[in-house]
Amino acid sequence: MKKKIAVIFAGGKSSRMGEDKALLPFGGYNSLAEYQYKRVSKLFDSVYISAKSNKFDFEVNIIKDCYNASSPLVGIISIFDTLDIDEVFILSVDTPFVNRDIIDKLYNEALPTKDIVIAKSYNGVEPLCGIYRRGVVSIAKLFLEQNNHRLQDLFKKVDTQYVLYRQKDVFINLNYPNEYQKAIRMSLLSSD
């Protein structure tokens, strides 16, 4: 069954990569952003990309940040300020191995009373692989006013559920050139 709304976060500065990682080629697509968009579109009714601007060479709906600061917190607030929705699935552009099984488990175990439902792996909490609900907005805006952009602090303040995963390589983040090269090799060995 298709889920409603997903947003891929692709507005980061990519300072560790040395170039915009959302625009790096991946998986037979011109960009990692397009690769993620195509994959996630198979699972959700509507998919958007959160970014500061439309820098993409494919047709996609963009949710632009409503605030000057750059952070996932700003992206989350901007989603709920832009869309009239109660819930959204958020995924980082640089986690290309998060697949249908991971997302299905998150939804299957999600309790309807929780404000945030996020993945937790061997690497720790995965803040940009989760379900966020409108109930977080007022507290997130308070954090923004206080210039506190730490999602970990937000998780402690709202009703957060962690869904545990045993898989090790699924949540690999592509932050550095060597991680990107490793991911390309891994993608050639696996199929989605």
Would you give an account of this structure?
By secondary structure, the protein is α/β, with parallel strands linked by helices. The protein has one domain (3-189): Alpha-Beta Complex (Spore Coat Polysaccharide Biosynthesis Protein SpsA, Chain A). The protein is 31% helix and 24% strand. It contains six helices and seven strands, in the order βαββαβαββααβα. The protein has a seven-stranded mixed β-sheet, sandwiched between helices. It is globular, with a radius of gyration of 16 Å. The two termini are 18 Å apart.
Short description:
It contains six helices and seven strands; from the N terminus they run βαββαβαββααβα. With 192 residues, it is of the alpha/beta class.
Keyword list:
single chain; 192 residues; alpha/beta; Spore Coat Polysaccharide Biosynthesis Protein SpsA, Chain A; seven-stranded mixed β-sheet; 6 helices; globular
Give the fraction of residues assigned to helices. 25-40%
Q: What is the CATH third-level topology name? A: Spore Coat Polysaccharide Biosynthesis Protein SpsA, Chain A
CATH superfamily: Spore Coat Polysaccharide Biosynthesis Protein SpsA, Chain A
Reading the helices and strands in chain order gives EHEEHEHEEHHEH
Mean pLDDT: 92
Structural class: alpha/beta
Radius of gyration: 16 Å
Chain-wise SSE layout:
Layout: E1 3-9, H1 32-41, E2 44-51, E3 61-64, H2 72-82, E4 87-92, H3 100-109, E5 116-121, E6 124-133, H4 137-145, H5 151-157, E7 160-164, H6 177-189
